[in-house]
Structures are given as structure tokens and as C-alpha cells.
Specification:
The structure is a single chain. The chain has 2 domains: 96 residues; 51 residues, no CATH class. It contains 7 helices and no strands. The longest helix has 45 residues.
Length: 210
């Protein structure tokens, strides 16, 4: 059909645009947490199955070893087959454990995000007690550190260096240009939820591996 004169075509909104237009941050976090929890449950079941396979193969290797060396039912070379299968099961189980741990950290990322939105965060995070200074001009009066403090609300650091950087920001005033730069960086990062999730998960993974 031809459009009427002067009528402009409207592009249909993409899935992301339609989604973000009608979904609140709380709904988005809750949906992602549910999805990550479902994935974690599936990975847990997979890990449990692999654990059972490992146990069964270990028992088979021991039984075949007894049959080969003590009962002399067959040559010991046949033990290599279940032994290789056991080794493969061990590797698969270890990898499954890594995936499960990563999924658990993703769930924790959204759990903490929802706790902040629902005002349930006080007493659950890093209180910054290492940076408390009774001689500071305003830190004590403004509850910068401690339970329910500004530091606990804001801190998502997974390394001592990151926590120190946040503490330094809270303890020292910044000039206007620096404040505007930080605001711009926050505005750029805020809609990139996938990226923020990856950064948080990677930071925890790197800390655990260190």
C-alpha cells in the first residue's frame, strides 16, 4: 500500500527498545536473577551427574584391577579403557564446577543489585572499616564508613585496590571537571548491564584465582 502524502514511515522499535521502555530496573534485575538461578540449578544437576559418573567409573576401575591382578580373568591392559573414561569424567567435572561457580557469582551480582533497590543492603557488604579515620573532617558525621554507610552502599570492589580507590574518592573532594567526568562514565555504563555483569564476574573470578 502507498502511504498518504506527507506521511512518514516509522521504524518498528527493536526488541531492546521495547524491553527497556516498559521494564523497570527492579524487574530487569529480577528477571535476570531468575534466569541465572535456573542456569545454576541446571549446572548443579550436571555437576551431580558427573560426580556419580566419576564414582561409578572409579568403582569400575578398582573392580577391574582386582579381576585382572588377583582373579586373572583378563589382561590388565583392559583397565586402560575405564581409567581413561574416569580421567575424562574428572576433567569434565572440574570444568562443570567452574561453570557452576561462575553462575553462582552471576546470581550474587543480581542479588546484591536487588538488595540495593529494595533497601536491604545495610550490613551485607564491605563496610570500609579499614579506612575509618576519626580525625577526618566529615567521615564520621556523614557515616562514610561502617554498617549502613555510604561506602557499603556504593562499594562493588572485588580487590583491595578498588576499595581503596572508592575510599579515596569519598574522603577527598573532587573538582567540578572530575565530578562531571565521573557522572558521564556512570551514564555511559549504566545501560550496559551485560558488560557490568561480565566485569563483576571477571573481577571475582580473577580474585579467586589469585
Amino acid at each position: 500500500m502507498r502511504r498518504a502524502r506527507g506521511q512518514t514511515a516509522e521504524r518498528p522499535a527493536g526488541p531492546a527498545a521495547r524491553y527497556t521502555a516498559h521494564v523497570t530496573p527492579h524487574e530487569q534485575y529480577a528477571a535476570r536473577q531468575a534466569a541465572r538461578e535456573a542456569r545454576r540449578a541446571a549446572l548443579q544437576r550436571q555437576s551431580n551427574r558427573l560426580s556419580s559418573v566419576r564414582l561409578a567409573l572409579a568403582a569400575l576401575v578398582l573392580a577391574m584391577a582386582w579381576m585382572a591382578w588377583y582373579a586373572h580373568w583378563f589382561t590388565p591392559v583392559w583397565i586402560a579403557l575405564p581409567a581413561l573414561a574416569f580421567a575424562a569424567a574428572v576433567v569434565a567435572h572440574v570444568l562443570a564446577g567452574h561453570r557452576l561457580a561462575h553462575a553462582s557469582r552471576q546470581v550474587e551480582f543480581y542479588r546484591r543489585a536487588l538488595a540495593r533497590l529494595e533497601e536491604r543492603w545495610a550490613g551485607t557488604g564491605d563496610r570500609g572499616t579499614l579506612f575509618e579515620n576519626d580525625q577526618h573532617l566529615y567521615a564520621s558525621d556523614l557515616d562514610v564508613f561502617g554498617e549502613g554507610s555510604l561506602f557499603e552502599l556504593l562499594c562493588a570492589a572485588r580487590t583491595p585496590m578498588g576499595a581503596r580507590k572508592l575510599a579515596d574518592w569519598l574522603l577527598a573532594p573532587a573538582d567540578r571537571a572530575e565530578i562531571e567526568r565521573r557522572h558521564q562514565e556512570i551514564a555511559d555504563l549504566a545501560p550496559r548491564l551485560d558488560q557490568r555483569e561480565r566485569i563483576a564476574s571477571f573481577a571475582v573470578d580473577a580474585t579467586a584465582a589469585a
